[in-house]
Each structure stands twice: as C-alpha cells, then as structure tokens.
## 1
Amino acid sequence: MPQTADAPSRTSTSARFDALVRDLIEPLADEVDRTGRFPRDGVRALADAGVLGLLGAPSHGGGGGNLRQAAAVVERLAGVCGSTAMVLLMHYAAATVIEAHGPDDVRRAIADGRHLSTLAFSEHGSRSHFWAPAGTAAADGPDTVLLDAHKSWVTSAGEADSYVWSSRPVRADGPMTLWLVPGGSAGLDVGGDYDGFGLRGNASSPVTAKGVSVPVTARLGADGEGLTTALELVLPCFLVLSAAFSLGVTQALLDLTARHLRTTRLDHLGQTLAEQPVARRHYAELRLRADTVRAFLDGTLAALDAGGGTATLRVLQVKALAGETAAEVADGAMRLCGGSAFRRGMGVERRFRDALATRVMAPTTEALHDFCGRTGLGLPLFEGAR
Ligand SMILES: Cc1cc2nc3c(=O)[nH]c(=O)nc-3n(C[C@H](O)[C@H](O)[C@H](O)COP(=O)(O)OP(=O)(O)OC[C@H]3O[C@@H](n4cnc5c(N)ncnc54)[C@H](O)[C@@H]3O)c2cc1C
C-alpha cells in the first residue's frame, strides 16, 4: 500500500475511527462491492489513524492494543464494508507473526501505517488444508532461499507490502516454514483481478511464486516450526477476528431487517410488518442467534484473558459458530425482507454475500468441527500434517 506524503500523526482515538468509518468507508462500500475495487482510500485512512498498527508493541511505535480491541474494530468495519474489514483482519493475522519473528523495520512500518501485510497460506494443491503446504523453499547458496508455490487465495494480493508465506521446510522435519515475502518480489505473479461472489473489493486473487529469491533472514521463526507458529499465533487471532467479522455482518443484517420491518406497511391492514406476529417471531429467532454469538465471543475473549484449558476449545468453536450463524441470519434476513432485499439498494443482499465467506475460509467450519471434536476427546489436532 503506498505511503501518503503527509500522513497525519497517529491519534488512534475511537472518535477518529468512528468518523472515518462514517464519512469515508461507509459511503464507498457499495461502490467497492459493485466495481470490485480494492478499498485503498479506506485502508490508507485506517493506516493514518493508527489502526494498522493497533496490535504492535509500543516499543516499536505500535498501539499496544489487544485482541478485544482488534475484534471491535473488525466487527464495526464488517457491518459497513466487508472487504475493508477482511483486508484488516488478514493484516492483523499476518502482523502477529511479524511482531513475534519479523524484522524491526517492518514492525515499525506497520506501527506507522506504512505497511500492509496478509497471509499467503492456502494453496491449489492442498486447498483449505493450510497445515499441509506443497510449495517449496530451496536453499540457493548459504544466504538465500528460492520459493515456489501456487497460492490459491491471498487477500490484498498485489496490494499488500508483504505476504506471510508458508512453504515446506528447507531442511528440517515438520510440515511448514514461514517467510516474510516482500510484495514486489521478482517472480511473484498475481493471477488477475478477483471477481468474487462476496467481499468483492478484497483482491483475493491467486499468487504464484516461481523462484522467488528471499534472504534466509526472511524466515519467520525456525525452519520447520511454521505450523507451531501458525497454531499458536495466527490461529487465535484469525479465528477470533473472523468471528468478530461474522458478528459485524450479522448485526448489520439485523439492523437493516429491523428498520425494514418497522417502516414498511401493509396499507390494507393499517399495520407495519413489525406488527405481524410471524415476522416478529422470525426476527426474534434471528436476533437470539446473533446475541448467542456475541455472548460466546465475549466468553472466548474472557477465556483468552484468563488463560487455561478452555480458551483453546472456545477459540476453535467461535469462528464455526459465528460463521454458520452469519450465513443462517443472512438467509433469514433475505426471507424476512422479501423482494425488497433482492434489490441492491437495501444493503441486505451485499451482506448476504459477504456473510457466506468466513465458513469456507480455512480453517473451514468442517475442519473446525473436527478440531473441536479432537480437542474435546483428547486427540491431537493433527495426525501428522497430511
Ligand atoms: C474471500 C476469501 C478470502 C481469502 N483470503 C485468504 C488469504 O488471505 N490467505 C489464504 O491463505 N487463504 C485465503 N482464502 C482461502 C481460504 O482460507 C480457503 O483456503 C479457501 O476458501 C478454500 O477453498 P477451496 O475451494 O480450496 O476449498 P476446499 O478445500 O476444496 O473445500 C471445499 C469444502 O470441502 C470441505 N472440506 C475440505 N476438506 C474436508 C474434509 N477433510 N472433511 C470434510 N470437509 C472437508 C471444506 O470445509 C469446504 O467446505 C480466502 C478465501 C476467501 C473465500
């Protein structure tokens, strides 16, 4: 993401965040969806407001924020512009690894809002099984490594300043090694514009690497330790923020639905739709599902704060619950708002499309159910990464 010439000093106040969501990101959201254009203006404004650096350590200029704060940011954005929210979600997930294992200059650049990152895990060969990359990292002399891979989906492809990139190890045992790959590296090829069903502005294109040369120092953590890093650092962040994303979309759908029910009339009966018992009950059922997710997400964040055994299970459960709930509420909102929701102008069909994304994002709902079953039954998460 290009740096602004006169970036204002970072004052990451919630008032500034609220203002830029209201005045910039929300007004552009329909156009981003219609045209599939990457929301550069919004992301740049978030960067200038310190939002990209929220999770960075204060020692490196970061905001020193926590996952709860990041979840609130992602939830708010998701209800307004799903594409912008997903770009930020992926950036936060990548930034957790850079914060732990990356170079100081990149950490400072993220903190200053000069660096957007993302995850490049999913591959054509192993698909949503992110734990089993087929892409390779081959030694090219003592100091350099050549990366080859077919990444199937990368949010902010061609827009990000770096990719947190998974490969098979160079020499070590183990399923995965992680790298910090600069966005402009020679040999990286972004496979065309993203033309998706939902999150249409998030530039989720395939990315191919053919002999991409990176220094050995671009490795994030030890050779072969990438899956451990992914599970310990990326997964909690990604799963919690995905749940917050789903909740934001769900809440927006319910707000739009409530407004429709309250303001739309059946003139021959002299009633609003809200005065119809069947519509009321259906709305109440959807609302109950959304509120269940909110309580569960709060509980998950509390479990993470407290540490201990239940946190792992809650983190695995929360994305599955929130993602499936978003899809069900979106379907319910489309039904409740009837033909009106089929028109783009109302905003329900955009959120319907956005709501369906997280359940197929890895780990998918099916994978999470398996992980939850394994955790609950005392089995290892993976029987060796295959
Ligand atoms: C909008 C969007 C943005 C994305 N951004 C990124 C990104 O930034 N970085 C990144 O790395 N990836 C990203 N992805 C990719 C995502 O994480 C998944 O890898 C991808 O959506 C999986 O699609 P697929 O067709 O390969 O699924 P497949 O792996 O073919 O799965 C298809 C279906 O089969 C199910 N399934 C698969 N294996 C099993 C099994 N063993 N048992 C039961 N069911 C199974 C899955 O749950 C899924 O429902 C993104 C995806 C989307 C949609």
## 2
Amino acid sequence: MFFKRRKHKWLIRDWQKVYGRPKPQMAALLTRGRSGSHFVLHALHSHPQVAALEEHVLGGQLKAYFNSELFPIDEIAEKQLLPQKQNLASVDWILLNKPKAEDVTYHFPFQRDNLRLIYLFRNPVTLYYSWKKGWDEMAARDYGLAAADDDQVLGWLRALILDEMTSYGFYRNRDIDTVVSLESFTCESDENLRRVWARLGLPFVEAGQRPRLEQCPVCETRLEVQEDGEAVLYCPRCKKSYRAAGGYNYIGEIDASYLNHWKSKEKSPYLYEYFSQLLGTELMAFYDNETYLAPDSADIFEDLLNHTIDRICKI
Ligand SMILES: [Zn+2]
C-alpha cells in the first residue's frame, strides 16, 4: 500500500509519487437532475480510464485538487459511481457529477487545460413534465401541500436552462468541450460514447469490454438478478437490491420509446411554443421531427445547441 486509509480525512500526497504517473484530468457533466444524468454518467464511467464521482463530491474542493500537493484521494477513491475503479493509477479522467458551473469555471483562468465541460441537455418539454411531477409528489408527500403552480415550475425551469446555457456559452471551448443530447444518447449510445470519449482523447471501448457491477460493494457476494417491478441487481447476503441515484438501474434495458410521448400530452402545444420562442424553432424541431433517431444526430444537435447558445449569450 502506498498510503493508509483514514476515514473522513484527506490524505495529502503527491499524485505522481503515489501512482507513478501524472494526475488525472477533470471533466464536469453540467446539467441538473431529471436530465438522465445518471444514465449518461454511468455510461461514461464504464470506460476503464474514467472515474465518475457521486453528486456533490469535490465540487467546492477543486482548488485543493489543483494544488499539486493536495489530493483528496479518499474522496476520489471511495465516492465513485459503481463499479468503482480499484486502482486510481488506471484513471485518466475524473468526471464531476452535476457540479455548480461556477465552482468549475472559477478555475478556468489558471486550469483551463485540466478542465473539460460536457453539457447534457434534455428536451425541455419532457423536462418540464418530469419536474412538475417531482414537485407535485414532493409537495403532497413532504409538506401536505397542493400541486405546484404550472407557471412557477415553468419559470423556474426557464431560469435554470438560461443559467446553464449562459454558463456553458461564456466558458466553452468548442474544440475540447462538448454537448450531449439525452435523446440522441438514448438512441445511439455507442456513437455518443465514442464521440465524448474521443473528445477526452480516449479510445472507444466495446460494450463487452466495459466493467460491470457484478459483486456487492459491501460484502463482495456475487449479485443476482431479482424482479422488483423490473429486473434489478440484488445481494442475497445483504438482502438489498441495487439501484443508483436517480433510480438508475444497472441492468436496465435502454428504452427509447418514451421519447416522443410528450407529443400526445395536452399541455405540450403550449410548452412547445413557449420553448420555441425562448430557444428557437430549429432547436425544438430536433425533438418534434425526432432528428435524434438519425445516425449523425449528435453532431446535428451540437450545432443546433451552440447556435441557440450563441444567440442567448449575445442578449
Ligand atoms: Zn452484500
């Protein structure tokens, strides 16, 4: 062992000295909940050279990380998504899980070469329905309150989208940063993975070569498959089924059939028009025309989103 593990304490060491190689670079997945972030994060984490972290890990501690003598090794080693990389020496990229954009961009004047942005964007109409449902459930369950007002949810979502877009827009480097469409990623996962990994300078890894969660992270018993509404991983010793944050199912089938369900909902014409005015008709037509089904949809979407961001950042 190169170092002793001490719970709840940072171990201060020189990465090069401990692992015999330069420290990993950092990438940040910019987005908010209900955008399919864990689906995308787990897919990116499946690369042997990428370690995606749990939410809220390192967000406020980047300054210490970038000081070459201060590494929160415990945080990085123990708070990865599952399955965890056992040896950080194999990791070339640490992927931050939905950090606040300002916690990342604050470091750009000094560390731009070490930081990449991956901006994940979901159809705002379906995002609206997801947040509305979540707010309504939370209001009833936690506060005993009536459903949230539609316009309040919409106003909050509008502010959120503009905040993310301007953060990405003012700081992006088009040569090294990238945007991801959740819909395109759902329909063409391998092509989207190839694209993002390539942007990080990583080779593509075929699905069969990617590490999978097979052992219980607590007792190391081989996990079984159990029915719990759908097939999920289950530890017979801990008597626990495994899902990640956001309800992500490690062995769930990718289901693209829900992507156009928004078209048959009553409020959708209004929402579609609302977001067309805000973000442009070209971007919203990507969803209406189901362009995400096209093989080159990731490139099409990046151009569309960058065009929208160009316009919004000029306001
Ligand atoms: Zn177990």
